[in-house]
Amino acid sequence: MKKSLVVAVAGATGAVGREMLSVLAERNFPASSVLALASSRSAGSRVPYGDDELVVRELTRESFRGVNLALFSAGGSTSLEYAPYAAASGCVVVDNSSAWRMDDRCPLVVPEVNPHALENHNGIIANPNCSTIQMVVALKPLHDAAGIRRVVVSTYQAVSGTGQKGIAELESQVRQLFNGRDPEIKTYPHRIAFNCLPHIDVFLDNEYTREEMKMVHETTKIMEDPGIRVTATCVRVPVFYGHSEAINIETAKKLSAREARALLATAPGVQVCDNPAQTMYPMAVDAAGEDAVFVGRIREDESIANGLNLWVVADNVRKGAALNAVQIAEELLKRDLLAVRAPDMFVK
Ligand code: 25A
Ligand code: L14
Predict the structure, then answer these.
(1) Distance between terminal CA atoms of the chain?
(2) Measuring from atom 2 of ligand 2, which residue has the nearest CA?
(3) Angle at which helices 210-223 and 130-146 pack, to 10 degrees?
(4) Is the distance from CB of 319 to CB of 242 less than 8 angstroms?
(5) DSSP state letters, 114-158
(6) Is residue 130 annotated as a catalytic residue, yes or no?
(7) Edge to edge, what strands does the sheet with 92-95 contain?
(8) Residue whose CB lies within 8 A of the most ligand 2 atoms, among 20, 98, 215, for a mutation test
(9) Whole-Å CA distances, 168 to 19, 163, 181, 188, 219
(10) Whole-angstrom distance, CA of residue 13 vs CA of residue 9
């Protein structure tokens, strides 16, 4: 097993890229050197890495020579263009965009749920959508125990999902409204300050949004069970960090709320926070900056025979993106899988 690795972060100046650098440093990932890559716009600027700063370099096709591992979070089109060249240089890519997730050649991995899928990787590994990650971490132990047949989920998604520009939009609209000015609308189709938008990513022909359909398709791929039916409504809310989800599940076998609570209490990556009498339940403001997926409001759905309702909250930039990507990298190291078997597979 290689003990010191050359690691690159592509999109290092973004909300997720910065968090990737901070998670790598925090967890003492065994990197002998780290490269911060972004567009030409940011080349020459600096980003923090632990107690150090890295000078940002422009991402090019040649950036990955001698690099062992690359974490990408620079948007789908950047991943489509550059990840194949990274893999061709023998660099294993963990990609946070939607570009490769449903590609049969690419494992789609949440380490608490399907780490074994990494065994068959071909150089590009996909990190799932933030809303999907936190949902499957909570659903996996329940599925193993009782067989989930159907999931109905509604999300309450933070603006940091859209990166720096989403955070800036909420901040500036709140300031403008408090100063009696009309809020300027730049990033979302409508005002987000003091509002909720049932619209994340683009609308598709079936009248769902792409974000909603990611939750449907990615859940099936990660859980490796096409028998789980999923339907989603994804909503943007004026919260900076932390996605919340109301999840209703129907199972093959009956599971009481007490049994579900016990299963979740020992599940990896989960923290149960469920004491309504003490007004304790998961909240975005508490999940921000944390690693766990918080689960609470666990109760039986009294309208059907085998149903449960859950409230699931996690930091979308950490577990939903940067942390999950670094955990995938740690799992690759542990399994001695940091090598590319067919380097030219993705180059057209
Ligand atoms: O395609 P997807 O998968 O849907 O992803 C789309 C976007 O979603 C975010 C991520 O934004 C991504 O760009 N994202 C994806 N998955 C996410 C997840 N799970 C997620 N967000 C949360 N959770 P981001 O803000 O996090 O990161 C953007 C980074 O991408 C870099 N980048 C963009 N194009 C690139 C590129 N890097 C290399 N080559 C390219 N072609 C981008 O770097 C950023 O690091 P940058 O250098 O382009 O921008 C750095 C700063 O420049 C400012 N800026 C932005 N646009 C402009 C600008 N300045 C002047 N003019 C502009 N037009 C910003 O302030 C930015 O911080
Ligand atoms: O597919 O704007 O991972 O909240 C996740 C964040 C798409 C956009 C993805 C957002 C992105 C989404």
Answers:
(1) 31
(2) 162
(3) 40
(4) no
(5) -GGGGGG--SEEEPPPHHHHHHHHHHHHHHHHH-EEEEEEEEEE-
(6) yes
(7) 57-58, 31-38, 5-10, 69-72, 92-95, 124-126
(8) 98
(9) 17, 9, 17, 11, 30
(10) 9
The answer to whether 288 and 241 have CB atoms below 8 angstroms apart is yes
pLDDT in tens, 42-98: 999 999 999 999 999 999 999 999 999 999 999 999 999 999 999 999 999 999 999
Per-residue pLDDT at 4? 80
| Overall residue count recorded for the chain in this entry | 348
0.85 exceeded by pTM: yes
Whether 322 contacts 163, CB under 8 Å: no
> In this structure, which residue's CA is closest to atom 9 in ligand 2?
129
- How far, in Å, CA of 260 to CA of 112, rounded? 17
Question: Is 106 among the catalytic positions?
Answer: no
Above pLDDT 90, what percent of the chain? Answer: 99
> Is 2 a residue whose pLDDT tops 60?
no
* Angstrom distances, CA of residue 177 to CA of 169, 173, 174, 180: 12, 6, 5, 5
Which strand (E) or helix (H) includes residue 327? helix 323-334
Ligand 1 centroid distance, CA of 148 (Å): 36
At residue 348, the pLDDT reads 82
HEC sequence for 53-91: EEECEECCCCCCCCCCEEEECCCHHHHHHHHHHHHHCCC
Q: Which residues of 107-120 are buried (b: 16+ CB within 10 A; e: fewer)?
A: bbbbbbbbbebbee
Q: Does the beta carbon of 88 lie inside 6 Å of ligand 1? A: no
C-alpha to C-alpha distances, 60 to 37, 147, 243, nearest whole angstrom: 9, 46, 33
Tell me the C-alpha distance between 315 and 134, whole Å.
9
Query: What pairs with residue 293 in β-bridges?
Result: 270
Q: Which residues are CB-contacts of 281 (< 8 A; sequence separation ≥ 6)? A: 273, 274, 275, 296, 297, 311
Specify the pLDDT at position 89.
97
Least Cα distance to 210 among 132, 151, 127 occurs for: 132
What does the pLDDT read at residue 253? 98
pLDDT of residue 3: 60
Ligand nearest to the CA of 158: 2
